[in-house]
Specification:
Length: 475
């Protein structure tokens, strides 16, 4: 099966005419249809400015999320967790196991257990098929329009002002109201999310603590409740029910993982200008403010690097590595190794290539490290090695558009235009830019190739055109 065929598997079903989801005889959405709705929604989300392409943040969310999923009642269900560059406090689930987390929520949670409690709640919405039940209740819509509606609801939940533009028609606005979670759904997600949190070994007291803090903050906000409270209505009865469950459990004071602290540090730095970020982390370190000093030093190195103060970044990195050496729990951290490599590249350290070669073997799944190493190889006339490395990663992360873009660059350096345009087409396709994907595949076909390559391209073109046709019918 080609990557394009995998991507647009749902488009063929749509072209063949799936039954209306509102039809009484077809009231339930099966798991494959759920995944199709979620996948089509994600294509549009990946193309939006809000989607975060920071692989370190995404990979952290997926490690934490999949740990929780393993303790759910559907541990084999395929989940994908992703971040949005949105500083509103919100998290949401889409059909098929896609769970989004706003940067604002990551910064608002004060412990990893609080973040885990939110993810556990969203996982429960998926495993209990709440979204599928609500979507299937809509009348006269096919999967394609349901996917578009899911994205519209995402826009509405992230930005109240955008809701009128995203949900332009009265029918869509009414459907959006029907898709809001009910009190029963929330109570069920609380109960199951609590069980997941407990089985995964997190502090269950974090669940009511997070909700109560949001409620207290609401009273201080002129604009009303955070998006999370509007889309996940919290009542006194709901909090009381959670507290009743929690009070039966001992309070567990668990240390946060270093990755949790580093991810939050990255987001804090990203909110500020480079100069402000440097000042912020310098002040935090000099005043010994509350927080993780390793994470604060990491933030300072990152900010100096962003500001192109490479020698100062090198000095700050030396201080960071000294701290790490004296902290066993911080050793062998992939994010710190990645930052080390970035400073070495910026300062033209002669051992950079050897460092990356060793680091990639040590952390073979750390995508940001892979990106940097592949880019370094491409700059150093090692395109064939880079392409091989990228191909292995694409097998593991078939929707990662950065991998395809790097791969296309590698094939260009190797003077292999067919593969270059094919890789670029996959990047466009996963972002939902079907016109550009088709254009790239046409260029690949004109470049010439063997029978198998050309057959694959023809198959991909056919699938993409069918998908484009199905989308056009809904406009």
């Amino acid at each position: 099966m080609t990557l394009i065929l995998w991507l647009v598997l749902s488009s063929r079903a749509l072209a063949d005419g799936l039954p209306d989801l509102g039809d009484v005889s077809q009231a339930a959405i099966n798991p494959m249809q759920e995944r199709q709705i979620g996948q089509q929604s994600m294509m549009q989300i990946r193309a939006s400015r809000q989607f975060s392409d920071d692989a370190e943040i995404s990979d952290y969310l997926n490690r934490l999320g999949n740990k929780l999923v393993s303790f759910s009642n559907e541990p084999s269900l395929n989940f994908e967790f992703f971040a949005l560059n949105d500083y509103n406090i919100n998290a949401f689930a889409l059909p098929g196991g896609f769970i989004g987390v706003n940067a604002g929520l990551l910064l608002t949670t004060q412990s990893e257990s609080e973040l885990a409690s939110v993810l556990g709640h969203e996982i429960a919405h998926v495993t209990q098929h709440h979204l599928a039940r609500m979507v299937s209740a809509q009348r006269g819509d096919t999967l394609a329009s349901m996917a578009a509606l899911a994205v519209a609801i995402l826009a509405a939940r992230s930005n109240a002002q955008a809701s009128q533009a995203a949900l332009a028609s009265a029918q869509a606005h009414a459907a959006q109201k029907q898709l809001d979670f009910t009190r029963i759904h929330e109570q069920e997600a609380d109960r199951i999310g609590f069980d997941i949190l407990q089985k995964a070994g997190f502090n269950t007291h974090a669940m009511p603590e997070f909700l109560e803090r949001l409620q207290r903050a609401t009273r201080l906000l002129e604009g009303g409740a955070p998006n999370y409270l509007r889309t996940h209505p919290v009542t006194s009865d709901r909090i009381a029910d959670i507290e009743n469950r929690v009070n039966r459990q001992p309070y567990r004071l668990l240390p946060d993982s270093l990755d949790f602290q580093l991810v939050r540090t990255k987001l804090v730095g990203a909110q500020k200008t480079t100069r402000d970020a440097i000042g912020y982390f310098e002040d935090a370190l000099s005043a010994h403010r509350h927080g993780n000093p390793i994470a604060q030093q990491y933030g300072l190195v990152s900010a100096l690097l962003r500001n192109k103060e490479h020698e100062r970044a090198k000095e700050a990195l030396a201080a960071l590595l000294k701290q790490v050496k004296n902290t066993p729990s911080a050793q062998n951290n992939a994010m710190i190794s990645t930052l080390t490599g970035q400073v070495m590249r910026a300062t033209n350290d002669p051992d950079t290539l050897a460092f990356y070669s060793t680091a990639v073997q040590k952390f073979p799944q750390h995508r940001t490290l892979i990106y940097d190493y592949a880019d370094l190889l491409l700059q150093g006339s090692h395109a064939e090695l880079a392409v091989k490395l990228l191909g292995e990663q694409i097998t593991l992360h078939p929707s990662d558009t950065t991998l395809y873009n790097l791969q296309a660059h590698g094939y260009s350096l190797m003077n292999r235009p067919l593969e270059q345009h094919q890789a670029q087409a996959y990047s466009y396709a996963w972002q939902g830019n079907l016109f550009a994907a088709i254009e790239q595949l046409e260029m690949a076909k004109r470049a010439g190739g063997d029978f198998y390559q050309l057959s694959t391209i023809e198959s991909d073109l056919r699938e993409l055109r069918e998908m484009l046709s199905a989308q056009a019918k809904k406009q």
